[in-house]
Design goal:
Length: about 325
């Protein structure tokens, strides 16, 4: 079997390395855009930009050529930031036939309001689509620290995928609520932005607990709208990922919230993140616009949108949020 991993950020690199080590009989190719990242992995067996300090398997191959990466691939892992996934899917469509595509990015597409599996299904109609999600920080998985995740699909061979990904330190549980997994993974990032702001303002654990509770409530509300099962949000992909993302030092979205509390705008945050993407920012925009259109009451998302895109002062947003909930 040939496995292609598209996207050489920290998570894509971590999963590519895991797959290479866990499946010694299979070929694993990691596709990267940046020449410096490709050179680093080839020469040093390390992604010095996005995953420094982690020695990568000598079996892991890296390429900047999409056609080369996908030529023989029967399993494709997409670790592309959500707002760029459709563009990448269009690029790879000529090379993808009867393949299984596992998406690991978490977000909602702007304007279309589509989940990532829906984007992939539209652009890759012959592929079987699966979603992997959970409290899975690359910084811990890459160091083989015990982690659990869930993987869901309507038509892919979940037993095959479980075997590919499951290791002694990375436990994979099959799931059947793909909608719930994707909604949970996207919406929790908005809450993590808010908890980062709370921490940055020195408001403490009590306030953080309140925000996480509100975030879970909104996650369930959005999930019900899209037909997800409520119990999904009480599992690994829901509250498990929510708690990890809202409290961890590794969380990009929480870090972005800390930077917002310092008064940084979107451009400054992007520069400070050194190429890493806080998915919650654009997911907040997409979800708020959809909620306004559909009449879904999401006070936390609405206040985060006002702060991020309407330059609302944090003290005013917090005051209004207290009154709204």
């Amino acid at each position: 079997m040939t496995i292609a991993v598209l996207g050489a950020g920290s998570w894509g690199t971590t999963l590519a390395n895991l797959l290479a080590e866990n499946n010694p009989k299979d070929e694993v190719l990691l596709w990267a855009r940046e020449p410096d990242v490709i050179a680093s992995i080839k020469d040093k067996h390390e992604n010095t930009q996005y995953l420094p300090g982690i020695k990568l398997s000598s079996r892991l191959k890296v390429t900047g050529d999409l056609k080369e990466a996908l030529a023989k691939a029967t399993v494709i892992v997409t670790a592309i930031p959500s707002q760029f996934l459709r563009q990448t899917a269009k690029q790879i469509a000529p090379f993808v036939k009867d393949a299984t595509v596992v998406n690991v990015a978490k977000g909602i597409e702007l304007k279309s309001f589509k989940r990532m599996s829906e984007v992939l299904a539209e652009e890759l109609p012959k592929a079987k689509i699966a979603v992997l999600s959970g409290p899975n920080h690359a910084e811990e998985v890459s160091r083989k620290i015990l982690t659990a995740t869930v993987i869901a699909s309507k038509d892919a061979d979940l037993k095959m995928l479980e075997k590919l990904f499951d290791t002694e330190y990375f436990k994979v549980y099959p799931h059947d609520d793909i909608v719930g997994l994707e909604i949970a993974g996207a919406v929790k990032n908005i809450t993590a932005l808010a908890t980062g702001i709370i921490a940055g303002l020195g408001m403490g654990d009590n306030a953080t607990g309140s925000i996480v509770t509100l975030g879970l409530r909104e996650m369930i509300r959005v999930g019900r709208h899209f037909g997800a099962r409520e119990e999904t949000f009480y599992g690994l992909a829901g509250i498990g990922d929510l708690v990890a993302t809202c409290t961890s030092q590794h969380s990009r979205n929480r870090k972005a919230g800390l930077l917002i509390a310092k008064g940084m705008d979107f451009d400054a945050i992007q520069k400070e993140m050194h190429g890493m993407v806080a998915e919650g920012i654009m997911t907040c925009k997409a979800l708020h616009e959809y909620a306004e259109k559909e009449g879904i009451n999401l006070p936390l998302t609405a206040q985060m949108y006002s702060v991020l895109f309407e330059k609302k002062k944090l003290k005013d947003a917090i005051k209004d949020l207290k009154e709204l909930i």
